[in-house]
Amino acid sequence: GPVSLQPSELIKIAVIIALARYYSKVSTTEGLTLRELIRPVVLVVIPFALIVKQPDLGTAMVVALIAGTITLFVKIERRTLITMTAFGTVMIPMLWFLLKSYQKQRILTFLDPDRDPLGHGYHIIQSKIAIGSGQLFGKGYLNGTQNSLSFLPEQHTDFIFSVLSEEWGLLGSGVLLLLFLFLILWGLNIAHECRDPFGIILAVGVTAMLFWEIIINIGMVMGLMPVVGVPLPFISYGGSSTIKVMVSVGLLMNIRMRRFMFE
Hints:
The chain has helices at residues 7-26, 38-53, 57-74, 78-95, 101-111, 122-133, 145-148, 160-193, 197-221, 239-257. It is an all-alpha fold.
Protein backbone atom coordinates (compact mmCIF):
# COMPACT_ATOMS: atom_id res chain seq x y z
CA GLY A 1 0.00 0.00 0.00
CA PRO A 2 0.97 3.67 0.24
CA VAL A 3 2.41 3.26 3.75
CA SER A 4 5.49 1.21 4.66
CA LEU A 5 6.56 0.40 8.21
CA GLN A 6 9.70 -1.17 9.65
CA PRO A 7 8.55 -2.87 12.89
CA SER A 8 12.13 -3.61 13.99
CA GLU A 9 12.71 0.13 14.51
CA LEU A 10 9.72 0.53 16.83
CA ILE A 11 10.47 -2.71 18.68
CA LYS A 12 13.57 -1.03 20.10
CA ILE A 13 11.33 1.35 22.05
CA ALA A 14 9.10 -1.55 23.14
CA VAL A 15 12.08 -3.54 24.46
CA ILE A 16 13.37 -0.51 26.39
CA ILE A 17 9.98 0.12 28.02
CA ALA A 18 9.48 -3.57 28.88
CA LEU A 19 12.94 -3.89 30.46
CA ALA A 20 12.57 -0.60 32.35
CA ARG A 21 9.26 -1.78 33.83
CA TYR A 22 10.69 -5.13 34.92
CA TYR A 23 14.03 -3.87 36.26
CA SER A 24 12.41 -1.00 38.17
CA LYS A 25 10.58 -3.60 40.28
CA VAL A 26 13.30 -6.22 40.86
CA SER A 27 16.64 -4.35 40.83
CA THR A 28 18.58 -4.28 44.10
CA THR A 29 21.91 -2.91 45.34
CA GLU A 30 23.31 -6.47 45.46
CA GLY A 31 22.66 -7.01 41.75
CA LEU A 32 20.41 -9.27 39.71
CA THR A 33 20.76 -13.03 39.97
CA LEU A 34 20.69 -15.48 37.08
CA ARG A 35 17.12 -16.44 37.90
CA GLU A 36 15.97 -12.82 37.81
CA LEU A 37 17.52 -12.42 34.37
CA ILE A 38 15.48 -15.23 32.79
CA ARG A 39 12.42 -13.06 32.11
CA PRO A 40 14.32 -10.13 30.53
CA VAL A 41 16.33 -12.58 28.41
CA VAL A 42 13.06 -14.01 27.05
CA LEU A 43 11.74 -10.48 26.43
CA VAL A 44 14.82 -9.70 24.33
CA VAL A 45 15.38 -13.06 22.62
CA ILE A 46 11.92 -13.17 21.00
CA PRO A 47 12.20 -9.87 19.04
CA PHE A 48 15.92 -10.54 18.48
CA ALA A 49 15.15 -13.87 16.79
CA LEU A 50 12.34 -12.38 14.69
CA ILE A 51 14.58 -9.54 13.47
CA VAL A 52 17.40 -11.96 12.63
CA LYS A 53 14.85 -14.00 10.66
CA GLN A 54 14.07 -10.97 8.43
CA PRO A 55 17.15 -11.07 8.04
CA ASP A 56 18.49 -7.88 9.69
CA LEU A 57 21.40 -8.83 11.90
CA GLY A 58 22.51 -5.21 12.36
CA THR A 59 19.24 -4.09 13.94
CA ALA A 60 19.10 -7.27 16.02
CA MET A 61 22.57 -6.52 17.40
CA VAL A 62 21.47 -2.98 18.30
CA VAL A 63 18.55 -4.46 20.28
CA ALA A 64 20.98 -6.79 22.08
CA LEU A 65 23.39 -3.91 22.84
CA ILE A 66 20.56 -1.77 24.23
CA ALA A 67 19.37 -4.61 26.46
CA GLY A 68 22.93 -5.33 27.60
CA THR A 69 23.55 -1.67 28.46
CA ILE A 70 20.35 -1.42 30.51
CA THR A 71 21.11 -4.69 32.32
CA LEU A 72 24.65 -3.62 33.23
CA PHE A 73 23.31 -0.27 34.43
CA VAL A 74 20.87 -1.83 36.90
CA LYS A 75 23.73 -4.05 38.12
CA ILE A 76 24.30 -7.79 37.89
CA GLU A 77 25.53 -10.02 40.67
CA ARG A 78 29.28 -10.63 40.25
CA ARG A 79 28.99 -14.42 40.01
CA THR A 80 26.19 -14.11 37.45
CA LEU A 81 28.19 -11.63 35.38
CA ILE A 82 31.23 -13.95 35.31
CA THR A 83 29.04 -16.90 34.29
CA MET A 84 27.36 -14.96 31.47
CA THR A 85 30.68 -13.56 30.23
CA ALA A 86 32.23 -17.02 30.10
CA PHE A 87 29.20 -18.43 28.27
CA GLY A 88 29.26 -15.58 25.74
CA THR A 89 32.98 -16.04 25.12
CA VAL A 90 32.46 -19.73 24.34
CA MET A 91 29.50 -19.02 22.05
CA ILE A 92 31.17 -16.33 19.90
CA PRO A 93 33.24 -18.77 17.74
CA MET A 94 30.17 -20.98 17.29
CA LEU A 95 28.09 -18.04 16.02
CA TRP A 96 30.35 -17.82 12.94
CA PHE A 97 28.85 -21.05 11.60
CA LEU A 98 25.32 -19.68 12.08
CA LEU A 99 25.94 -16.60 9.96
CA LYS A 100 24.75 -16.48 6.36
CA SER A 101 27.34 -16.24 3.59
CA TYR A 102 26.78 -12.52 2.94
CA GLN A 103 27.11 -11.79 6.68
CA LYS A 104 30.44 -13.62 6.80
CA GLN A 105 31.49 -11.69 3.71
CA ARG A 106 30.75 -8.38 5.46
CA ILE A 107 33.00 -9.32 8.37
CA LEU A 108 35.81 -10.44 6.05
CA THR A 109 35.43 -7.23 4.03
CA PHE A 110 35.65 -5.20 7.23
CA LEU A 111 38.96 -6.91 8.06
CA ASP A 112 40.31 -6.39 4.51
CA PRO A 113 38.22 -4.12 2.20
CA ASP A 114 40.76 -4.44 -0.63
CA ARG A 115 40.17 -8.18 -0.99
CA ASP A 116 37.15 -7.40 -3.21
CA PRO A 117 37.31 -3.67 -4.12
CA LEU A 118 34.64 -3.84 -6.86
CA GLY A 119 32.32 -6.18 -4.96
CA HIS A 120 31.75 -6.47 -1.23
CA GLY A 121 34.43 -3.90 -0.40
CA TYR A 122 33.05 -1.25 -2.78
CA HIS A 123 30.75 0.43 -0.24
CA ILE A 124 33.35 1.04 2.42
CA ILE A 125 36.13 2.04 0.00
CA GLN A 126 33.93 4.68 -1.67
CA SER A 127 32.76 5.85 1.75
CA LYS A 128 36.31 6.41 3.00
CA ILE A 129 37.20 8.21 -0.24
CA ALA A 130 34.22 10.54 0.28
CA ILE A 131 35.12 11.26 3.90
CA GLY A 132 38.79 11.88 3.13
CA SER A 133 38.16 14.07 0.08
CA GLY A 134 36.15 16.51 2.21
CA GLN A 135 39.38 17.54 4.00
CA LEU A 136 39.00 20.44 6.44
CA PHE A 137 36.17 22.60 5.08
CA GLY A 138 34.55 20.27 2.51
CA LYS A 139 33.63 20.77 -1.14
CA GLY A 140 30.47 22.74 -0.46
CA TYR A 141 26.78 21.91 -0.32
CA LEU A 142 25.78 19.49 -3.14
CA ASN A 143 29.29 19.70 -4.63
CA GLY A 144 30.53 16.31 -3.44
CA THR A 145 31.73 14.23 -6.40
CA GLN A 146 31.22 10.83 -4.73
CA ASN A 147 27.62 11.81 -4.11
CA SER A 148 26.69 13.64 -7.32
CA LEU A 149 28.39 11.08 -9.57
CA SER A 150 26.68 8.19 -7.71
CA PHE A 151 29.90 6.46 -6.67
CA LEU A 152 28.59 6.22 -3.10
CA PRO A 153 25.78 3.66 -2.58
CA GLU A 154 22.94 4.19 -0.07
CA GLN A 155 23.95 7.84 0.16
CA HIS A 156 20.62 9.02 1.62
CA THR A 157 20.34 6.37 4.34
CA ASP A 158 23.20 4.31 5.80
CA PHE A 159 26.05 6.34 4.25
CA ILE A 160 24.64 9.82 4.79
CA PHE A 161 27.55 10.72 7.11
CA SER A 162 29.97 10.16 4.20
CA VAL A 163 28.01 12.67 2.11
CA LEU A 164 28.02 15.19 4.95
CA SER A 165 31.77 14.74 5.49
CA GLU A 166 32.55 15.25 1.80
CA GLU A 167 30.41 18.38 1.50
CA TRP A 168 31.18 20.00 4.87
CA GLY A 169 34.57 18.51 5.73
CA LEU A 170 36.08 17.89 9.14
CA LEU A 171 34.57 21.11 10.47
CA GLY A 172 30.98 20.18 9.61
CA SER A 173 31.44 16.58 10.78
CA GLY A 174 32.93 17.81 14.05
CA VAL A 175 29.93 20.09 14.65
CA LEU A 176 27.55 17.16 14.08
CA LEU A 177 29.51 14.95 16.50
CA LEU A 178 29.40 17.71 19.13
CA LEU A 179 25.62 17.94 18.71
CA PHE A 180 25.33 14.17 19.15
CA LEU A 181 27.54 14.39 22.26
CA PHE A 182 25.26 17.09 23.66
CA LEU A 183 22.23 14.85 22.99
CA ILE A 184 23.79 11.88 24.81
CA LEU A 185 24.88 13.99 27.79
CA TRP A 186 21.40 15.56 27.92
CA GLY A 187 19.83 12.10 28.09
CA LEU A 188 22.20 10.95 30.84
CA ASN A 189 21.57 14.15 32.80
CA ILE A 190 17.82 13.50 32.65
CA ALA A 191 18.42 10.00 34.07
CA HIS A 192 20.65 11.48 36.79
CA GLU A 193 18.05 14.05 37.89
CA CYS A 194 15.08 11.67 37.78
CA ARG A 195 13.82 10.25 41.10
CA ASP A 196 11.62 7.48 39.72
CA PRO A 197 13.40 4.12 39.12
CA PHE A 198 11.31 3.42 36.02
CA GLY A 199 12.08 6.85 34.59
CA ILE A 200 15.80 6.48 35.31
CA ILE A 201 16.08 3.13 33.53
CA LEU A 202 13.87 4.32 30.67
CA ALA A 203 16.06 7.41 30.13
CA VAL A 204 19.22 5.30 30.21
CA GLY A 205 17.72 2.85 27.70
CA VAL A 206 16.65 5.55 25.24
CA THR A 207 20.04 7.26 25.52
CA ALA A 208 21.80 3.93 25.01
CA MET A 209 19.79 3.32 21.84
CA LEU A 210 20.76 6.69 20.37
CA PHE A 211 24.39 6.21 21.44
CA TRP A 212 24.79 2.79 19.84
CA GLU A 213 23.10 3.83 16.60
CA ILE A 214 25.39 6.85 16.30
CA ILE A 215 28.53 4.85 17.12
CA ILE A 216 27.70 1.94 14.81
CA ASN A 217 26.67 4.08 11.83
CA ILE A 218 29.66 6.43 11.97
CA GLY A 219 32.05 3.57 12.75
CA MET A 220 30.62 1.63 9.80
CA VAL A 221 31.08 4.41 7.20
CA MET A 222 34.63 5.07 8.45
CA GLY A 223 35.63 1.42 8.13
CA LEU A 224 35.92 0.86 11.88
CA MET A 225 33.00 -1.61 11.98
CA PRO A 226 31.40 -4.06 9.54
CA VAL A 227 28.74 -2.65 7.20
CA VAL A 228 25.27 -3.10 8.70
CA GLY A 229 21.93 -1.44 8.05
CA VAL A 230 21.80 1.00 10.97
CA PRO A 231 20.54 4.55 10.18
CA LEU A 232 22.07 7.69 11.65
CA PRO A 233 19.55 9.33 14.04
CA PHE A 234 18.02 12.61 12.78
CA ILE A 235 20.15 12.52 9.61
CA SER A 236 19.37 9.36 7.61
CA TYR A 237 16.24 9.24 5.45
CA GLY A 238 13.57 6.87 6.71
CA GLY A 239 10.03 7.13 8.04
CA SER A 240 10.07 4.42 10.72
CA SER A 241 13.51 5.47 11.95
CA THR A 242 12.45 9.12 12.17
CA ILE A 243 9.29 8.24 14.11
CA LYS A 244 11.34 6.12 16.52
CA VAL A 245 13.84 8.94 17.14
CA MET A 246 11.06 11.49 17.70
CA VAL A 247 9.32 9.13 20.14
CA SER A 248 12.64 8.65 21.93
CA VAL A 249 13.24 12.37 22.38
CA GLY A 250 9.60 12.78 23.45
CA LEU A 251 10.11 10.15 26.17
CA LEU A 252 13.23 11.94 27.42
CA MET A 253 11.39 15.29 27.52
CA ASN A 254 8.49 13.63 29.35
CA ILE A 255 10.80 12.10 31.98
CA ARG A 256 12.54 15.44 32.49
CA MET A 257 9.22 17.28 32.86
CA ARG A 258 8.18 14.91 35.69
CA ARG A 259 11.59 14.44 37.31
CA PHE A 260 10.56 15.91 40.68
CA MET A 261 7.17 14.19 41.03
CA PHE A 262 8.57 11.32 43.13
CA GLU A 263 10.59 13.28 45.68
